[in-house]
Amino acid sequence: MNITEILTRLGIKETNSGTSTGNNWLETGGKNIVSYSPVNGQAIASVQVADEAAYESVMKKAEEAFVFWRTVPAPKRGEIVRQFGDALRAHKEDLGVLVSYEMGKSLQEGLGEVQEMIDICDFAVGLSRQLYGLTMHSERPNHRMYEQWHPMGIVGIISAFNFPVAVWSWNTALAWVCGNVCVWKPSSKTPLCAVACQHIIAKVLKDNDMPEGISSLLVGNAVGDKINNDKRIPLVSFTGSTRVGRIVSAAVATRFGRSILELGGNNAIIISKDADLEMSIIGAVFGAVGTAGQRCTSTRRLIIHEDIYEEFKNKLVKAYGQLRIGDPLDQHNHVGPLIDTAAVEQYTQAIAKGKKEGAEFVVEGGVLDSEAYTSGCYVKPCIAEVENHYEIVQEETFAPILYLIKYKTLDQAIALQNGVPQGLSSAIMTLNLREAEQFLSVAGSDCGIANVNIGTSGAEIGGAFGGEKETGGGRESGSDAWKAYMRRQTNTINYSNTLPLAQGIQFDL
Ligand code: NAD
């Protein structure tokens, strides 16, 4: 694998503009961000951040593009998204490697992320012919009442580092077929993935003679606040931490904009005494250490029945002993690096805080600092026995720290699972139908995602994705999540020769 050749094929140079309206890449007065690989600490390339003038140029083009794009029939917009999916198929290997190299997740997961992009394109193509509204019966004679869905305008997409390409595509593929144009502010920790994606879509748009501004890119931390407060952006789709989500949500609400919030998780698996323990081990270990614990859906807590607690704990400890930590591009390794040394610091602090609160570590953590781990970003996945109420257990630490909690009854297990501020993903491992149904019932899991005999991590694009409580309540991806990208209009047409008022109100002149 030659990373230089891969970067060239993706259109990435040593220094790149981070401001684009499509094929037009703007030189700005902004500073350069150097993107370092957490895999080996090497500088990959740099990206120039957008300044005030660049932001305004992008917004102007986006406004103009929307006036055109909204009139393109939805199935024709879908055809462009279909071609985008094909372009992603052609670039899957290269983009998958870049995701792995710049973000640090395993190559398999990098390729999987690009596959998710392809899948959402396929979904959106079909959707482009199914943006249905209802027809209602009017209470007045010779009146017809129905609803239709119109695009909203410019959709601002602010994304996190841990899914540096897929989250953008979940939003864009749907937003585009709905008739919106998109402005993307990616994480400054993974700007090259964003530059590569923008090159791919820009070529598709150019091949179809589309104007600039349908897909725009703005790299830079300061861009986030501009998007939050910009009245020209009726919808902001934000993916990131609860801390930042709170700021975004308040700012957008103040100007009566809409937001889709996809925030932090604190996901648990309940391991019943009626679980298939072998399946449960695989689900738990992959959920906890996959992407080095940096998924919003990572498994952070295992709530284990007391009868099998010791047996399951021993199996887990044994499984952790077999984990190989190292270069995520080497498919023999299970665990790659954290995103940067600041994340390593947070991991170390969380372990120290946990110990202070009484956490008993059955697999010790630690930072790996031998020659093989030059970037300083590799850490050991660890396991601690805790109480659910510990402060550290109530928080999301974006690292591979797994907490074990014991339970007696299923009611108690569900209360523990729900007893955190976040509400993204949850699961129960059980072969007992009554337990499974209770977990999924109205008195069961309070999360946006609740699984049976599957871990918490990973989701298919066909379902609506998102969570409750401090996870923000947003939904993206499949099902009817598209409705969040459109405005609903109710239309009543009177084809009689009188003007009857609703509710039988009389108004005689
Ligand atoms: P983060 O909150 O630090 O950053 C997310 C994005 O917000 C980045 O692009 C960042 O530059 C931007 N940002 C920072 N300050 C801003 C501001 N004031 N206004 C607007 N934007 C601002 O998150 P992160 O460290 O990149 O990602 C990890 C977090 O994301 C975790 O909490 C994880 O659970 C969450 N996440 C959630 C989902 C989900 O679907 N629920 C998916 C992926 C990640």
In short:
The protein is α/β, with parallel strands linked by helices and 509 residues long. The protein has helices at residues 3-9, 52-69, 74-90, 92-103, 107-127, 166-177, 191-207, 221-229, 242-254, 277-289, 309-321, 341-357, 391-394, 410-418, 433-440; strands at 15-17, 19-20, 32-36, 43-48, 135-136, 143-151, 154-158, 181-185, 215-218, 235-239, 258-262, 267-271, 299-305, 360-363, 382-385, 401-407, 422-423, 425-429, 449-452, 464-465, 468-469, 476-477, 486-494.
Topology:
Layout: H1 3-9, E1 15-17, E2 19-20, E3 32-36, E4 43-48, H2 52-69, H3 74-90, H4 92-103, H5 107-127, E5 135-136, E6 143-151, E7 154-158, H6 166-177, E8 181-185, H7 191-207, E9 215-218, H8 221-229, E10 235-239, H9 242-254, E11 258-262, E12 267-271, H10 277-289, E13 299-305, H11 309-321, H12 341-357, E14 360-363, E15 382-385, H13 391-394, E16 401-407, H14 410-418, E17 422-423, E18 425-429, H15 433-440, E19 449-452, E20 464-465, E21 468-469, E22 476-477, E23 486-494
Parallel strand pairs: 1-4, 7-8, 7-10, 8-9, 10-11, 12-13, 12-18, 13-16, 15-16, 18-19
Antiparallel strand pairs: 2-9, 3-4, 5-6, 6-23, 14-15, 17-21, 20-22
Helix pairs in contact: 1-4, 3-5, 3-7, 4-5, 4-7, 5-6, 8-9, 10-11
Residues 158-163, 185, 187-188, 221, 224-225, 228, 239-241, 244, 247-248, 262-265, 296, 396, 398, 424, 467, 471 line the site of nicotinamide-adenine-dinucleotide.
